[in-house]
Amino acid sequence: xxxxKRQAAELAKQAFEYAxxxxxxxxVRIQPRYGLFVGGRMQxxxxxxxxxxxxxxxxxxxxxxxxADAVDVGRAVDAADKAFASWSRMAPSRRSRxxxxxxxxxxxxxxxxxxxxxxxxxxxxxxxxxxxxxxxAAHFFYYAGWADKLEWAFPNRRHRPLxxxxxxxxxxxxxxxxxxxxxxxxxxGNTVVLKPAETTPLSALLFAEICQQAELPPGVVNIITGAxxxxxxxxxxxxxxxxxxxxxxxxGKLIQRSxxxxxxxxxxxxxxxxxxIVFEDAPLDQAVEGIVNGIYFNQGHxxxxxxxxxxxxxxxxxxLEKLKQRVSTLRLGDPLDKNTDIGAINSKAQLEKxxxxxxxxxxxxxxxxxxxxxxxxxxxxxxxxxxxxxxQSYRIAREEIFGPVLSVLTFRTPAEAxxxxxxxxxxxxxxxxxxxxxxxxxxxxxxxxGVVWANTFNRFDPTSPFGGYKESGYGREGGVxxxxxxxxxx
Amino acid sequence: xxxxxxxxxxxxxxxxxxxxxxxxxxxxxGRAYRPDGAIxxxxxxxxxxxxxxxxxxxxxxxxAGRTAMNRGQILYxxxxxxxxxxxxxxxLLGGGRQxxxxxxxxxxxxxxxxxxxxxxxxxxGTVNPVAGPYFNFxxxxxxxxxGIVAPETPALSxxxxxxxxxxxxGNVVVALAPEARPLPALTLAEVLATSxxxxxxxxxxxxxxxxxxxxxxxxxxxxxxxxxxxTPDEVVEIEKAAADNVKRxxxxxxxxxxxxxxxxxxxxxxxxxxxxx
Amino acid sequence: xxGVRSVDEVGADERAASLAKRSIKKSSKLWxxxxxxxxxxxTTLEGSDTxxxxxxxxxxxxxxxxxxxxxxxxxxxxxxxxxxxxxxxHLRGSGxxxxxxxxxxxxxxxxxxxxVTETEDAVAAGADEVDMVxxxxxxxxxxxxKVYDEIVxxxxxxxxxxxxxxxxxxxLGTYDGVRRASILAMAAGADFIKTSTGKIQPAATLPVSLxxxxxxxxxxxxxxxxxxxxxxxxxxxxxxxxxxxxxxxxTLGADWMTPDRFRLGASTLLNDVLxxxxxxxxxxxxxxxxxxxx
Lengths: 490, 277, 294
Prior knowledge:
With 277 residues, chain B is of the alpha/beta class. Chain B contains 10 helices and 12 strands. In chain B, helix 6 (157-168) links the parallel strand 7 (145-149) and strand 8 (172-176).
């Protein structure tokens, strides 16, 4: 051979560096400015205030959206209330028809929705294309089927919808969170006013178009954009009978306090600090995939992220070796590139928060590992990070970072794993990795978490109830249980 | 009709065929009969039935193995295809208000059961709190090859009402079309053939009830038989023949629309696993 | 052997599927297609193979696209022992190696003495590489020692020839079994582990290959000895070939992107790769009429 093995490997690395594979965006039209979707059509807002929504990978402005004020919120709630009278009295099978239509339309416009979601939020196109959008369509399809079957969901109980639901959703899974909120609400006979997060309004506004295409009766779904203030106006509006909030625990508590004594029904889906527990007999390579998926999927912007790795001390060393090697193959970059694994951080504010907590980790004495990543010049980025030598008391082990940062702790026995995993005010999810079936069930029984993933992680399905214990919130989304928050049962 | 001055259009008339293994076929016997005196319809034989059961059995593992959501989407697609052909079916059913009502009912039935595929397990399955450190759960599974004897009337929605729940649960079907009015059933087969159902999941045979029924009832590889379209005497004969392989004989009140129709074609499986460190 | 770690089937399937989604374009694609050819074991393993058939295949192996010197030769020709001498004859001086199957291929249901003799004779006839099959009967009945000893004996009979050990993953039943067989074969001295004979379904699949490569990685870590990987059976399209390359690249790294450590056993794949290369170069989809079938 004319060249050495080392040279050949280097050549291979350069040549096989996966040329850019950009997703086409020419079929997508984002308008320069948007109004509010109220009473079945896009309307000019009363508020004179507008704010931009940008692409966090490029910092380029995508569009301008309105900051709905009290008058706008009032109009939207009125429209929803007006529509409620006929929507709730409609034959359930007719409601079902509209929801099936919406589901099919989401499938028909899937790629467009995925591209918009990626541009507005920063998540890799392969995630919005393969996870967010299909699950959104599936959510509507599932709940469409429940609309005319409620007597079997709650046998021997009379059910009534509540009225207008005020729904506030976060920026990490904009379209999916919208589907989790709107589908069951409508299936149960309610009407909604939904406020998407201020950094990710576009897929919700595209959804408004889909509602029009489905010829959904006007006012059944209303979409108003805005920031914290708008959300606060919405949840406190007296015409809203039910509030659903997904977001930070901090804001969740504020909402719960503000709703005290109002008689409004409330469900909260808040933060988490999930423990991903790996036993020594776990299938290691798949456990590594599960860990990676658990904390780096969607850049760690996931409430149920497996942000704490609890590894049994006897295999900590080989597991961490494999984990670091695997993390080094993660590709960070343009979210619209089909090969990107780690996209952009959603906003400057979030990036600063992540950086702050990572700095605290270093300060408190944890050991930092980050693979080499080519960070693009513009945009908000954070490389996948692993902290080892972490104590339970460190901020990085207690506080939700909401970024691609994993804290690693060890344990010796199952009982110790249970204790450490539950030692948090949060309780959204947990992961258990072991080859032994009985141990899976034993651990699952003891996890104080609303979702337990065994030998897998971050799996979602419309049929599967999702929600937290303790300060991760209450109420469930998905499954039969997902209908409960939207019904009055007697 | 004799041409007046030779300008009337001469229709290309359809040859009606049975639907077996994803294909439209004449009877292997080559026979036909004319239920309305004018149109030839295949007179299915015991060999056609044999082939249909074989095709169904071959398709069972794949269909049962699909996700519930996928089956639901396909049933919904069947509703899309049927609704898209409203005019044709209303004419086939005799035209007028009754025909339209019947067609609507058939579409609604497909949509209703499409929405059950991913819920029947949640409603009829259970987690059982046994007295010991065991996780114990019960889940419904499809029974297998289901024979359906379509009621003579209504010629379309009668069949759809029996077909949809069986398919919803993950079963595969061999259906005997109504003897006197088989055309809606065969046209329905065209709808099903364009709805993304894998080949062999549904098979529709036409012919004489008294010839085909005994073979269906006695077939050792058919797991259940829906006798909604049978006379009381026929039911007795079927029950006797079914005993040879303990076939489930399903009798449901004709108007009933409920998830029990789905579980009538399903088996309940209970699984135990210890809980321990 | 019973202490070998288990593999989660669903997790392995998901990882393989996610790697198969990589989109390899332009210069990377051309490089990958070129590598696919350089790593190909062009194969004919039929009862009806004749010296004439082998001669045609050898010509194709040396010059896959007549008139296009930019297309490299394949790595090797893979034939039955009786055809080794013919292959040797036609490949003389070309750099393309001769691989012979052996050990009662494809079933392996014969005596160890026969298998050893067959290997010796194939090497004597000119084989540079030997693709043996493991005794699945012994493996599935738990007689791991027999499987191990047989591989050791065949390796010895190979002399200087390289030994590829075919696991016939489609018969092993589980990914656990695939991992176990991989470790066993490597411990016994395999230079390459290979998925399949190509004579039964399923043959090579992406998840099975992922599991084998993870075993190779672990073995390398434990012993420092690199073992090669060969996927064979059912690989007909460039898209599939590239998927195997991606899995290799992301599991084993750049060091394995060479015919010394990676092979694809195939026959119809070659023309599909040539068509894809032309499509990349000209921008138009191609027809099979323009590529020779040897």
